[in-house]
Amino acid sequence: MLDLKFTLFFPMKNTPKLLVSSLLVGLLSTINTTAIAQSAIAPLVAQSPSNSSTDAVVKRLQGRWEVEDPSSGEKLIWIFTQEGELFMVLPYGEGTRFALPFGYQIDPTSQPMHLDVSLPQQEEKVLTILEFTADGELRVQIEGTNPGEPRPTAFNSEAAVFSKVDDATTLPPDAEVIDAGAQVKKAQESEGKTYIGAMNRVQQIYMLERKQFVSNLQELGLGIEPETEIYRYQILPQGDGTQQVMMTATAKVAELRSYTGAVFVIEKDGQSTTVTAICETDQPSSTPPAMPTPPSQGSAEIQCPSGSNPVR
Asked: Which of 76, 113, 234, 304 could form an SS bridge with 279, CB 3.0 to 4.6 Å?
């Protein structure tokens, strides 16, 4: 089964089965706030200090390699550059591909040779092994590898065998480079927006049924914890709790935006009803927006405070 976090960042059609069990999925599915929370984005990993044996292996690796997924016939392409970059080119629907940039290091003195693969904003590397076969192909142990886990010591029957296409290090013309860091940030921020949206909806139900807003997370019954790895959640009652309520998602990670949800009771056509909004900070911030302004007379539009904008 395709990993949910993987599909969240890079939803794909007709994804080769080979990719599902690969170190690619291992890398992507374990990107989490531990990695994102670092004060600076980690650069792509450069090669180990230059020596003749390493240079010779890098030169031999340099270029495009491909392996065919046995179940779908799709091709996975790896492109090694001399500068320590590894691009994984994957199919995406009909006639479209995207490329994920990784860093790599090799140790040619070990047998089998060691290959370390890393992703920007990911501290833990995938440690695996590779070798050149007698036919000039490249064998890599992909299956069973995950970030932070021990390096395999031997190849198994699931090891991928890549064939050299050419020495070019340029991407195919139909491949788009994916900014993995931006995709991770977007996915992380979706937690804050989703949780606040759910809290808004439950508050509307409580007001409809009980004529009172909920004042604590446990009473909401959503299973939302006061803190996750990336956000801190609060309900901030307003007044007597019968006219408006405020919920916040405060980012614990410097690169993420914070969110405020608000529910207001208004009069419309002689009936009491509720309106909601979610405001997000314009920039990454550890301070959520202040309480939004309720709709003015005859309007259902909630105004987000300065420094924030409504989530549509």
From this structure: 304
Query: Residues of 191-219 as b/e, b for ≥16 C-beta within 10 angstroms?
Result: bbbebbbbbbebbbebbeeeeebbeebee
Indicate the SS3 state at residue 213: coil
Find all residues with CB under 8 Å of 158, minimum gap 6, and list them: 21, 142, 143, 144
- Classified by CATH at the fold level, domain 4-178 comes out as Lipocalin (2.40.128)
Domain extents in the chain: 4-178, 182-310
DSSP, collapsed to helix, strand or coil, labels residue 302 as coil
Let me know: does 289 contact 264? Beta carbons within 8 Å: no
Range 182-310: architecture per CATH: 2-Layer Sandwich (3.30)
Quick one: which of 287, 290, 240, 285 has its CA closest to 265? 240
Q: pLDDT by residue (tens digit) across 254-289?
A: 889 999 999 999 888 788 899 999 999 999 999 999
Contact 17, 69 (CB under 8 A): yes
The helix/strand/coil state of 91 is strand
68 HSE (CA, 13 A, CB side): 6
Q: Which helix (H) or strand (E) holds 162?
A: strand 160-166
Phi-psi region of 107 (alpha: psi -120 to 50; beta: other; left: phi over 0): beta
For residue 33, give the 3-state DSSP assignment.
helix
E strand or H helix at 160: strand 160-166
- Residue-wise pLDDT tens digits, 185-219: 888 899 999 999 999 999 999 999 999 999 999 98
